[in-house]
Amino acid sequence: MFFGVLYHLRHPLLALEKIHAVCTGALLMQTAMCENTGDEPMAEFHPFGVKSGPPDNPRYDPTCLWFPNPACCIGMLEHIDFKKGVKRISPSAPGGGVFTAKAALQAKGNRPVEKTLPWS
Predict the structure, then answer these.
(1) By the 8 A CB rule, do 9 and 15 touch?
(2) How many domains would you assign to the chain?
(3) Is the pTM of this model over 0.70?
(4) What pLDDT band is residue 104 in, cutting at 50, 70 and 90?
């Protein structure tokens, strides 16, 4: 599960590559998206964060940088080799979407060794 993180990242493709390297099953990804729902992959970039608030007192959230459209989300997942079952599974709701994809290598995960976990 990779929910509500992509649009905060400076390097979203790098993050997806890292996830792909350890994913051995299905990926569920939720992200905020731009309003463009066309077939061409594109993303809005807000270098100083997304603007919100009233016009006379705008505020910027410096943690919200990238807002891809649905075609861009699918394209990014396919680009980094999530080739099986890449699709949007949420209805066309404004502001965000949920996508699914399957890793190229399907394998059962291993249970963590509880004695070596950081909180042990």
Answers:
(1) yes
(2) 1
(3) yes
(4) confident
